[in-house]
Amino acid sequence: MNRASSVPAPLAWIDVVTERLGKALAWLIIVMMLIQFLIVVLRYIFNFNSIPMQESVMYMHAVVFLLAASYTLKHDGHVRVDIFYRGFSARRKAWVDLFGTLFLLFPVMIFIFVSSLGYVGKSWAIFEGSPDTGGIPAVFLLKTLIPVFAVLMILQGVAELIRNVLIITGRITPPPHDDDHLEERV
């Protein structure tokens, strides 16, 4: 059975969006490292300090951390204590992931989304800026990443839910997992 043709369109669409977003954000990590390197060089060699440059690294870090979380979920890269899970069959893993999505991921993300709306709304109401003189005047945009994070995680959670139901019902074969890359070997 061709796995690509057996995947429902909503699942394929969410996976494509998540994959493209994650790969685009990977480039931001390189930009962030270069700017951080420049900050260090300017500070210690030329005795020059730039608050906007320092804050830009913080903004980029927040963007990568919050918006790439769904990419990490898609690739099963989040920290997991899997003493029992690793020995489970693919179908049993799908059941665990299904319940984890329904009873952990969704409630937490819904809570984050709902509870962040007032916080973000107040920030937008005053167009909150940096507390530092000369800083980036866009803290309201930074705070907006919180509900966006929750929405992206819920969206990827829906994809994971669909994928796990399809695995449980035998409509698709689970993707092969190479667990060797997920842990350090001592």
From TrEMBL:
<dbReference type="InterPro" id="IPR055348">
    <property type="entry name" value="DctQ"/>
</dbReference>
<feature type="transmembrane region" description="Helical">
    <location>
        <begin position="57"/>
        <end position="73"/>
    </location>
</feature>
<feature type="transmembrane region" description="Helical">
    <location>
        <begin position="24"/>
        <end position="45"/>
    </location>
</feature>
<keyword id="KW-0472">Membrane</keyword>
<dbReference type="Pfam" id="PF04290">
    <property type="entry name" value="DctQ"/>
</dbReference>
<feature type="transmembrane region" description="Helical">
    <location>
        <begin position="134"/>
        <end position="155"/>
    </location>
</feature>
<keyword id="KW-1133">Transmembrane helix</keyword>
<comment type="subunit">
    <text>The complex comprises the extracytoplasmic solute receptor protein and the two transmembrane proteins.</text>
</comment>
<keyword id="KW-0812">Transmembrane</keyword>
<dbReference type="InterPro" id="IPR007387">
    <property type="entry name" value="TRAP_DctQ"/>
</dbReference>
<dbReference type="GO" id="GO:0022857">
    <property type="term" value="F:transmembrane transporter activity"/>
</dbReference>
<keyword id="KW-0997">Cell inner membrane</keyword>
<dbReference type="GO" id="GO:0005886">
    <property type="term" value="C:plasma membrane"/>
</dbReference>
<comment type="similarity">
    <text>Belongs to the TRAP transporter small permease family.</text>
</comment>
<feature type="transmembrane region" description="Helical">
    <location>
        <begin position="94"/>
        <end position="114"/>
    </location>
</feature>
<feature type="domain" description="Tripartite ATP-independent periplasmic transporters DctQ component">
    <location>
        <begin position="32"/>
        <end position="165"/>
    </location>
</feature>
<comment type="function">
    <text>Part of the tripartite ATP-independent periplasmic (TRAP) transport system.</text>
</comment>
<keyword id="KW-0813">Transport</keyword>
<keyword id="KW-1003">Cell membrane</keyword>
<protein>
    <recommendedName>
        <fullName>TRAP transporter small permease protein</fullName>
    </recommendedName>
</protein>
